[in-house]
Design a protein that fits this description.
Layout: H1 8-22, H2 24-27, H3 32-39, H4 42-49, E1 60-67, H5 74-78, E2 91-92, E3 105-106, E4 117-124, H6 134-143, E5 147-148, H7 151-160, E6 170-172, E7 176-177, E8 182-189, E9 192-199, E10 207-209, E11 211-212, E12 216-218
Parallel strand pairs: 2-9, 6-10
Antiparallel strand pairs: 1-4, 3-7, 4-12, 5-11, 6-8, 8-9
Length: 220
């Protein structure tokens, strides 16, 4: 039986429709048309970049349309996430201090494009790095020629592919750091996604480290 090829154009449209359905345009202070027009130039780039990549699975997807904190705040996007088939909204761990989130910037190795949105390719939730400290996972990720995900990218992952976050299949976001030993992570708490943090040197059996191909394609 021949496997149906991955339709990148259809998936880009699905991702964009999902963001519109969730209310991203109004959160960004844009009309739906303006929001769609803003990200439209990325459609052809998504098709080109996803060429040859396998169809999505629970753990790995060909590409993501990433909206940044420059357009919509982290906590607003987090509150629009849910687990697959569930309704409880995602929330922020109480151990984040007030005004803590803006301090978590992408690490310099990522070269994240400036602007409101960009594309990320070949995203994996990093199950193989479960029970490894983020420090050790980072070594494994870079040895594969890949780079870790940021908070923005992790939120895009579970917003557009909610099945990516599952019991004992949660993940650190080593691509966002704030100068100390904390590493953001997405896990499940009280039946909903939770954005928390763990220590760079501490392993957890249920927590991997998500990664993607190095290149990120922006609008500019």
């Amino acid at each position: 039986m021949t496997e149906t090829p991955f339709d990148a154009e259809a998936d880009f449209d699905r991702q964009l429709d999902r963001l519109v359905q969730l209310g991203y345009p109004s959160l960004a202070g844009l009309t739906e048309t303006a929001f769609r027009d803003m990200v439209a130039p990325l459609r052809a780039q998504a098709v080109e970049g996803a060429h040859g990549l396998p169809a999505p699975t629970d753990a790995r997807v060909p590409f993501l349309l990433v909206v940044t904190r420059d357009l919509v705040p982290v906590e607003a996007r987090l509150g629009l996430t849910t687990l697959a088939g569930k309704r409880k909204p995602g929330f922020l761990d109480r151990h984040y201090a007030e005004d803590d989130l803006p301090r978590f910037d992408p690490i310099k190795e990522l070269e994240v494009p400036a602007g409101p949105a960009y594309l990320l390719f070949d995203i994996d939730r990093g199950e193989e790095f479960r029970n490894l400290a983020p420090a050790a996972a980072m070594e494994g990720i870079t040895a594969q020629g890949r780079l870790p995900l940021t908070i923005d990218e992790g939120l895009a992952f579970i917003t557009l592919h909610p099945v990516a976050l599952a019991s004992n299949r949660c993940f650190s976001l080593v691509g966002s750091r704030c100068g100390d030993k904390r590493v953001p992570a997405l896990w499940i708490s009280q039946g909903a996604p939770k954005l928390g943090w763990c220590w760079y040197g501490n392993p957890h059996t249920w927590l991997g480290s998500a990664s993607a191909r190095p290149e990120r394609i922006g609008l500019g």
